[in-house]
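Annotated sample (chain length 606).
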Amino acid sequence: MNRYSRWKYIFILAALVLGALYSAPNLFGEAPAVQISPANSVAQVNAALMDGVENTLKKEQIPYVGVSMDANSVKVRLSDTEVQLKARDLLQKSLGEGWSVALNLLPASPQWMAKIGALPMFLGLDLRGGVYFLMQVDMGSALNKQLDRRMGDVRQVLRDAKVPMAGVAHEGGNLVVKFKDGDTRTQAAEELRKGMRDMVVTSLDETRLALTPNPQALKSFADQALQQNVLTLRNRVNELGVAEPVIQQQGSDRVVVELPGVQDTAKAKDILGRTASLEWHMVDEEHMDGPSLQAAEKGLIPPGDDYYQNNRDGRPLLIKKQIILTGENVSNAAGGFNSQTNEPVVNVGLDTRGAKIFGNVTRENVGKRLAILLIEKGKGEVVTAPVIHSAIEGGQVQISGAFTIKTANETALLLRAGALAAPMEIIEERTIGPSLGADNIAKGVHSVLWGFVAIALFMSVYYRVIGVFSTIALAANVLFLVALLSLLQATLTLPGIAAIALTVGMAIDANVLINERIREELRAGQTPQAAIFAGYERAFATILDSNVTNFIAGMALIAFGSGPVKGFAVVLCLGILTSMFSAILVSRALVNLTYGRQRRLTKIAI
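Output written by the structure step:
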C-alpha cells in the first residue's frame, strides 16, 4: 500500500544528486579575473587574441589559473586581487586602446563543473552594487527629425513627376505641401501616394496636402529607433569596462541600464550621453603601394590623407580627408543577400541629398574603394571599405565583402548606430555601493535561513517524525529551486530572495495539509498504513488546486509585470513547481521507506 517502485526511488535520488550538483557552484564564491572585450567595432574576439593574452602573461611571469573565451570576451582567472591589478595594467598597455580590460569576478567552482553547465547564479545590481539608469526615449523628437528628412523626398517625387509646388513645411506631426491651384494639388496627391507609400496623403483645403506616416511606418520607426538606441548604449558601455552590464528594453519607449561595479556616476552619464557620427571617404588608391603604406605606418602620411587599419582583412588604408557623406544621409541599413550570388550583403538607403551625391561620386570613381568611418570622441575607425563596381543611382546601396550573415547584420546596425536614433533622458538614477550589496546578500540569506529554521522547529515539534520528513522535503525544495535557477543562469536579486523565502513558507503548506489529513484518518479509526495512504491521496486535490491558483497569479505577474516584479514572479512560479515535487514525492518516499515495509504497524509519530 505505502511502497514505491524501485524506479521511483532511483528517480528521486537522481533528482537530489543533480540538484546538489547544480546548486554546489554557488558555495564556491568568486575568484578575481580580468575580462578583455572590444572597445570598438574593429577589434574582434578570436583565438589569436586568447593566445596573445596568454603569451603576454607568460612573458611577464604573471601567474594565472586559466583562460577562457566566449563570443564577446576573453577572461583570465587569477589567484588574488594583487595579481589581478598587475594583469589588468599589463594587458591594457599591451593590447592598446582598441580593447577594454576590466576587473571582473568569475566563479571559483572547479572547471569540470563548468564543463557540464554547473554554474552559479549571477548577482543582480542590488546584491553586487553599481549604477542603475532608467532612460526615456523621446520618440516625438525623433519623429520630427525623420519628417524633416522626408521633406527632401517630397520635393524629389514631385520634381520627377514635374509637378510644381509652392513649398513644403513641417507642421506638428505632418508635412504640409502647398500648391497654386486645386488641379495641381490633385495631380500631386496621386504622385505622392505612388512615390511615398508609407505616408497617408490627405487634403487640407483647395491648395494644401498633408502627409502623415501610417501606423505601420510609425511602429516600424519606433521599434528600429529603440533597437538602435539599445545597440548604441551597449557599444558605449563597453568603454566603461563593465563585466556584466544589463541593457534592455522596458516597455515601448524606455531602456534600463544596469552597470554592476560602477560607482562613478558622472563618467557613466558621460559615456551614455556622448555622440558619434558616420563619415564616407574615398580610399587614396594612388598611395596604396607598399612603400607608401610603410612610410605612413612610420608617420609619413601623404598630405590630405589619414592612416587607418582595415577591420576586414587587417591591411592598412590611406583614406582621403575629404568627407563625401555623413551618417545624416543614411536613412536605413539592413543585412540581406545578393540576388545573384546569394552572398550576405548590407543594403543601405540614402536620403535624397545623399543619393544625389553618392550617384555622382560612384559614377566618377568606378573600380575604387569607398571607406565608411565611425567617428567617436574625435577618433575614427573603418567599418568597411568596399569596391565601387558601377555608378549607383537612386540612393539604394549594396555593400558586399567578406560578410557572414552575422557580420552583415552587425555592420548594418553599426551604420545605424553611429549616434542615438532618438534623444534620451535619464528619468531615474540609483547608485548602490558594494558594501550595501553585501549587506543585502547577508540579510536576504539570513531571512531565508531563519525562516527555514523556524519552520523546521515547528514541524519537528508539532508533527514529530513525520514533521522531520516534511522538513527534509522542504530542504530538498530549496535545493531544487537553487539548482534550477543556476541551470537557467538566472540573475538573483532581492525580489528573487524574497520569492525564495515566500516559497519556503508556501511549500510547507502542502505537508501541513497532508499531515493533518493523516491525523484525521487516524482519529476516524483507520489503521496507520491506511491513514498514510488516504492522507496523501485525499490531500493531493487540495494541494493541486492551491498551487494552480498561485501559479496563475504568478503567470499574471510575469505577463503584465516588469523589472523586479517579473523577477519575483519567475522565482515564485519555479518554486511552486519544485514544491509540488518535493512535498508530495520526496516526503512520501521518506515515509514509505520508514513505515511502508512494516506489516503490523500499530502507530506512527505524528
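Annotation: The mean pLDDT is 83.
Annotation: The two ends are 19 Å apart (CA to CA).
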